[in-house]
Amino acid sequence: GAVVSQHPSRVICKSGTSVKIECRSLDFQATTMFWYRQFPKKSLMLMATSNEGSKATYEQGVEKDKFLINHASLTLSTLTVTSAHPEDSSFYICSALGTGGEKLFFGSGTQLSVL
Amino acid sequence: GENVEQHPSTLSVQEGDSAVIKCTYSDSASNYFPWYKQELGKRPQLIIDIRSNVGEKKDQRIAVTLNKTAKHFSLHITETQPEDSAVYFCAVGDTGNQFYFGTGTSLTVIP
């Protein structure tokens, strides 16, 4: 099946720094990728929908200037958490729509800890 | 947008018993209903899915049923094993390729 690679798997950073998370579709082209935030034992909260070559669509309540999304190619989307603060600590997961545009394939997630 | 409700939030069963998780949705135009299993700290994995033109689908010990009229679908796991312990999410896909997730069910299978 389709593989989505996400890096890094874990990052610890100081408050005020920026962190970039990469999401790559390895064996297929993904015109649409999604970014989620997940708290322990909670559901996936959709943050934004990323479409290749266009601006991301953010969900209500998600600050687009804080969570910068770039989908510059058909195989790569990045999420940058700018000026991270402890409240941004969370598990972030990306997913991509597979060929045919129906099934979702998830990255392995990034555990962000902001000190 | 779609409103997806999932019940129960936690479920404990004895090994060998069956487990059932239910989801309801609001948009009758939704047409794709996947179920994901997520182990702690790992990515959600698709375990089974069903499309709106099918009422039931089975894959070994896992089955999904869909009632389009009532707008609900269920995951059935038979002969549960300890390795089935995880969080399960239902999702609803609409015609615009947007996905809406349920709140998750933490399943514990007691040996």
Helices and strands in order:
The complex is a heterodimer of chains A (115) and B (111).
Chain A: E1 4-7, E2 10-13, E3 19-25, E4 32-38, E5 44-51, E6 57-58, E7 67-73, E8 76-81, E9 90-97, E10 104-106, E11 110-114
Parallel strand pairs in A: 2-11
Antiparallel strand pairs in A: 1-3, 3-8, 4-5, 4-9, 5-6, 7-8, 9-10, 9-11
Chain B: E1 5-7, E2 10-14, E3 19-24, E4 32-38, E5 45-51, E6 56-59, E7 62-67, E8 72-77, E9 86-93, E10 99-101, E11 105-110
Describe this structure in words.
The complex is a heterodimer of chains A (115) and B (111). Chain A has strands at residues 4-7, 10-13, 19-25, 32-38, 44-51, 57-58, 67-73, 76-81, 90-97, 104-106, 110-114. By secondary structure, chain A is an all-beta fold. In chain A, strands 2, 4, 5, 6, 9, 10 and 11 form a seven-stranded mixed β-sheet that branches. A four-stranded antiparallel β-sheet of chain A has the order 1-3-8-7, with no helix packed on it. The model of chain A has no long low-confidence stretch (mean pLDDT 91). With 111 residues, chain B is an all-beta fold. In chain B, 0% of the residues lie in helices and 55% in strands. Chain B has strands at 5-7, 10-14, 19-24, 32-38, 45-51, 56-59, 62-67, 72-77, 86-93, 99-101, 105-110. In chain B, strands 2, 4, 5, 9, 10 and 11 form a six-stranded mixed β-sheet that branches. A five-stranded antiparallel β-sheet of chain B has the order 1-3-8-7-6, with no helix packed on it. The chains are: A mainly beta (115), B mainly beta (111). Chain A binds chain B through residues 6, 32, 34, 41-44, 46, 49, 91, 93, 97, 101-109, 111, and chain B through 32, 34, 36, 41-46, 49, 87, 89, 91, 93, 97-104, 106.
Oligomer: heterodimer
* Beta content of chain A: over 45%
User: What is the helical fraction of chain B, as a range of percent?
Assistant: under 10%
Shape by Cα distribution of chain B: globular
Question: Which parts of chain B are unreliable, with pLDDT below 50 for 5 consecutive residues or more?
Answer: none
Strand content of chain B: over 45%
Report the span from N to C terminus of chain A: 37 Å
Q: How large, in whole angstroms, is the Cα Rg of chain A?
A: 13 Å
User: How many strand elements of chain B?
Assistant: 11
Radius of gyration of chain B: 13 Å
Number of helices of chain A: 0
Question: Which chains have the largest interface?
Answer: A-B, 22 and 23 residues
Task: Give the count of helical stretches of chain B.
Answer: 0
Global mean pLDDT of chain A: 91
State the major sheet of chain A.
Answer: 7 strands, mixed
What is the average per-residue confidence, as pLDDT of chain B, rounded to a whole number? Answer: 93
